Amino acid sequence: MRSPEGRATRVVITGAGAITPLGLNAPDSWRAMCSGRSGIGPFERLAGHELKAPLAGEVRGYEPARHFDEKRLQLLDLASQYALVAAREAVAQSGLDLAAPGLAERGAVVIGSGAGGENTHDASSRRLYAENNPRLHPLTIVRLMMNAPASQLSLEFGLRGPAFVVSSACASANHALAQALALLRGGQAEVALAGGTEACLTLGVVRAWEAMRVLADDACRPFSKDRRGLVLAEGAAVFVLETLEHAQRRGATILAELAGVGMSSDAADIVMPDAEGAGRAMRLALADAGLAPEQIGYINAHGTGTQANDATETRAIRAVFGRHADALAVSSTKSMHGHALGAAGALELIAVLGALREGLLPPTINHREADPACDLDVLPNRARERRIEAALSNSFAFGGLNAVLALRRWD
């Protein structure tokens, strides 16, 4: 939707919430990123199993009973729990009164998730096949259905506008934020809860990833020459998005502007990344935001720590930014919180918001040796103070699906 003057509706972020391997809220997660602290460690949930890749970014210290009563927990897979915890924090920070007259019908929910209620699915499968028990919990379906996190947020906050889940593997959260942006721009909502959630660190999922031979057995080392693969993780981050007009009308504190998005499909290979497709998504995000490449000061890279991804992403960045690529700061916070799959882009948006607001760029930790194939300024091991005007956040998924967010600092 455009204003009478022909300008596209602007969309801003007014609240952020998170539960991650780095902290049980957004501020703690951000501070951990700034300090270069790792949330990756030996698997606790799968202790006792012989794993080829025994590391994970688990959410530690989370106590469901502190957030939900026993009756509510019967309805909630861990993925929905994480989404609700993050959304409550985001709404509280925003100061948004979702009970204001008429706002419920103008409020949307869009959540990204790659696996949905995997813990429920895993428990049901064990009960059925391992224990030979044909009687499953009567609420199994409502716990594991893919749309559960979005539906639970809609119920929690009484939002009666569009509500749905986007599932596109590791690009899910960025795709969800892109769809929320489109709803607000298109006039179908004035506010939205958007982000991503993932909780799929089950034995079956880990074994499947082991079979692909892309998991690291020592640490996540994005862009380092000796990188050995990715580390699986879990968590959620949810954001309050509003049209600028709505946010200003109520005097909200604006964290940043979600200025544009770019989405593309490689149509090349089901698993191998493609520099042309990734680059096209970055170009589209810049164009949608009305930003020149030289205005970008920081990129939160997809940066999984695999040999193929990091080199391919480097080529894509150089193709898009040309000489300016040498002036860009690029880091992968997956080195600290791991790869949260469908929630990855949401967790990484916490990093981008912090960088824009505080002028502190989070590092790529565990970096030991420069790789000529990854010849960017990857902020090795230490955060850096730098005021930036705008940033990109990259998410590239199996299936050749690319989603890039462009954000602008708000003063």
Explain how this protein is built.
This protein has 13 helices and 14 strands. By secondary structure, it is an alpha/beta fold. The protein has 2 domains: 11-249, Peroxisomal Thiolase, Chain A, domain 1; 260-408, Peroxisomal Thiolase, Chain A, domain 1 (3-Layer(aba) Sandwich), CATH 3.40.47. The strands form 3 sheets. Strands 5-4-6-7-1-8-14-13-9-10 form a 10-stranded mixed β-sheet, sandwiched between helices. The longest helix has 17 residues, at 78-94.
Question: What are the salient characteristics of this protein?
Answer:
411 residues, alpha/beta, Peroxisomal Thiolase, Chain A, domain 1, 14 strands, disordered N terminus, 2 domains
Walk me through the topology.
Elements: E1 11-19, H1 26-35, E2 41-42, E3 55-56, H2 70-73, H3 78-94, E4 107-112, H4 118-130, H5 140-144, H6 148-157, E5 163-166, H7 172-185, E6 191-198, H8 203-212, E7 235-243, H9 244-249, E8 256-265, H10 275-289, E9 296-300, H11 307-321, E10 329-331, H12 334-337, H13 344-358, E11 360-361, E12 384-385, E13 390-397, E14 401-408
Helix pairs in contact: 3-6, 10-11
Quick synopsis:
Helices cover 34% and strands 19% of the residues. The protein has 411 residues and is α/β, with parallel strands linked by helices. The chain has 2 domains: 11-249, 3-Layer(aba) Sandwich (Peroxisomal Thiolase, Chain A, domain 1), CATH 3.40.47.10; 260-408, 3-Layer(aba) Sandwich (Peroxisomal Thiolase, Chain A, domain 1), CATH 3.40.47.
